[in-house]
Specification:
Layout: H1 6-9, H2 13-19, H3 25-36, E1 38-40, H4 42-46, E2 57-58, E3 63-64, E4 71-74, E5 79-81, E6 94-99, E7 102-107, E8 110-117, E9 138-141, E10 144-147, H5 168-174, H6 183-193, E11 202-206, H7 218-231, E12 242-245, H8 251-260, E13 265-267, H9 275-281, H10 283-288, H11 291-305, E14 310-316, H12 329-344, E15 349-354, H13 371-388, H14 404-407
Parallel strand pairs: 1-6, 10-11, 11-12, 12-13, 13-14, 14-15
Antiparallel strand pairs: 2-3, 4-5, 4-8, 6-7, 7-8, 9-10
């Protein structure tokens, strides 16, 4: 299953930590674990306490309720996203084991770093008044509440139009769950979650595209406007710490959300920083909005929400997907960072997630780039933000934790 000589082809974790002293070792470790995934030993699983730790998650990408941990945390608060799945078909995963009664990341028998399981919030095992488990309505990260109100995507309704790295359709079809959550269940769950003092710093919403409505995407805008309007009552109708990741809305639609709700920050993920690759990897987005159209809508978002309150996400590494992606890491990195700098010059921050070739995606069994590629990408994106004075507090390690490059803003 795994390539026998992949370690000989790449510089090791310890070599890269020494090679890039300006990049936190915790960020390098996080990146590699997200790239390769983890497996748990029996001893590590015995450390899981379902009464204390988060083991269940339901979202647009994941649907699990076994007894494996949802994700991991390191000593400095760095989050390692794992969701209990193997993500690489070419490299061995890390092992989570118990050493000297501590939960440790281990690779080839060598202890790498101590890790901790995410702790469960108070609301997680409660039910809404309609009898729905609250963990199915709002999922939790260490300091964030996450709402996935639409757990399907209209682009997948037309063959060949879904994003090729995405597993939303596969997750939805494999599970027994509604595509749209009840707004009343969401509002009730958020209210209950906010009763736990000191736990949360942000409320986050995202989901699949809804194409319908009087104008293209009005259906999606209407849904978020209803939810955000209801949640706003907990904050006296004022702006509250919140982020929306959605399809790229028009300026008129964005103005509705900004004026009528407490939404504070906005994200529309462009996924890959290259027009030709965008059209190949994200054909639905390309046909309806287009690469330049997506960028233009981001520019309009900055005019409405303000600099530092708008960003766009990329699936770091997907620009090297075969057969149409870049052939060398240097070429891919140079192109991506140049386009990220162009966006930064318009006040838009680019944040990167580690490409994970999950089962159910069109790109399953592709090979992700080297660890050094991701270190260089994270370092480059961080330096671009510093050059243009763009704050990334809206999507930092506390409000998200999924982006190695935004973790570097702490340094």
């Amino acid at each position: 299953m795994f390539e026998r000589d992949w370690r000989e082809k790449e510089e090791s974790l310890s070599q890269l930590i020494k090679k890039y002293p300006d990049v936190s070792p915790f960020v390098v470790i996080k990146t590699d674990v997200q790239r390769r995934g983890v497996v748990y030993t029996e001893n590590a699983l015995r450390k899981v306490d379902p009464e204390r730790h988060i083991t269940k998650i339901r979202s647009d990408y994941y649907d699990k309720e076994d007894l494996t941990p949802v994700s991991l945390l390191m000593r400095d608060g760095t989050t390692i996203f794992n969701e209990g799945v193997l993500v690489d078909t070419t490299r061995e995963p890390y092992t989570v084991d118990v050493v000297d009664d501590k939960i440790m990341l281990v690779d080839e028998g060598r202890v790498i770093e101590e890790v901790f399981y995410w702790e469960k919030p108070d609301y997680y095992d409660k039910l809404t008044s309609g009898g729905v488990p609250m963990w199915q309505v709002v999922s939790a990260r260490p300091q964030r509440l996450t709402i996935h109100p639409n757990q399907f995507c209209d682009f997948w309704k037309k063959p060949g139009q879904g994003c090729k790295f995405c597993v939303m359709a596969a997750t939805y079809k494999a599970g027994d769950k509604p595509s749209l959550l009840s707004v009343s269940d969401i509002t009730e769950t958020i209210g209950e979650a906010l009763r736990e003092p000191g736990r949360n710093v942000c409320i986050f919403l995202t989901g699949g595209t809804l194409r319908g409505g009087a104008k293209f995407l009005d259906e999606e805008v209407d849904l978020y406007e209803r939810i955000l309007g209801e949640i706003s009552k907990y904050f006296d109708g004022k702006k509250f710490p919140s982020q929306l990741i959605s399809t790229a809305f028009s300026g008129e639609q964005l103005r509705r959300l900004y004026d009528n709700t407490g939404l504070a920050t906005y994200t529309a993920d462009i996924e890959v920083l290259n027009k030709d690759l965008f059209e190949w990897i994200c054909p639905g987005k390309a046909s309806e909005i287009g690469y330049e159209g997506w960028k233009e809508r981001l520019y309009q978002a900055v005019d409405i929400f303000g600099p530092g309150n708008v960003n766009t996400g990329i699936v770091g590494g997907v620009e090297m997907a075969a057969p149409n992606g870049f052939k060398t890491e240097d070429e891919a990195l140079s192109s991506s960072l140049a386009e990220a700098e162009d966006l930064a010059s318009h006040g838009i921050s680019v944040v990167s997630c580690v490409w994970r070739v999950l089962r159910g995606s069109v790109f399953f069994r592709q090979t992700v780039p080297s660890l050094e590629y991701y270190v260089r990408l994270s370092f480059g994106l961080d330096r671009i933000r510093r050059k243009y004075g763009i704050s990334v507090d809206m999507d930092n390690y506390r409000r998200c934790g999924n982006h190695p490059d935004t973790d570097l803003a702490r340094i």
